[in-house]
Amino acid sequence: MKKETIKAGQITIDFLLEAADTNGAAAMFEFTVPAGAKTPLPHYHEHYDETIYGLSGVLTFTVDGKITDINPGETCFIPRGVVHGFDNLKQNDAKGLTIITPALLGPVFFREVADIVNQPGTPDLKKLGMVMAKHGLVPVVPKR
């Protein structure tokens, strides 16, 4: 059962489970990425792992420098400390299911990000970085 829907920029997050539902063991949400959507900077998580399961469309993940397309029914495991990011490079919307273990990331993070990125104009990257740090995400600026 869907608990909460959060729209952060062009990405929609539908929370299914959070820490209170699983005694802190796991959080789970679906996320929809429109074709060509702006996506978060590459980052890593300090204290939790992330597993992605493709539901529809194709999500292109870069994990530790390796590019992987995740099609429906395919999975990708991202251990804590590993730099990763994602894009939707195809012509159709893509949807994935994310499981966070343990449940150290929840709806509060996405609400705080939405408050920043949903404002008119360019998002305040300093505020965004502070929200990420508060929730255990470390942004990694790509090398040019």
Please tell me about this protein's structure.
With 144 residues, the chain is an alpha+beta fold. The chain has a single domain, classed as Sandwich (Jelly Rolls). Helix content is 17%, strand content 41%. The chain is built from three helices and eleven strands. It has helices spanning 19-22, 107-117, 125-134; strands at 4-8, 11-17, 27-33, 43-45, 49-56, 59-63, 66-70, 75-78, 84-87, 94-101, 137-139. A hairpin with a 2-residue loop joins strand 6 and strand 7 (66-70). The model has no long low-confidence stretch (mean pLDDT 92).
Distance between the termini: 43 Å
Q: pLDDT under 50 segments (min length 5)?
A: none
What is the CATH homology-level superfamily?
A: Jelly Rolls
- Evaluate the radius of gyration: 14 Å
Strand content: 35-45%
Tell me which CATH architecture applies here: Sandwich
Do you know the CATH topology?
Jelly Rolls
Number of helices: 3
Quaternary state of this entry equals: single chain
Pfam families: Cupin_2
InterPro entries: Cupin_2 (IPR013096), QDO-like (IPR053146), RmlC-like_jellyroll (IPR014710), RmlC_Cupin_sf (IPR011051)
Protein name: Cupin domain protein
Domain Cupin type-2: 30-99
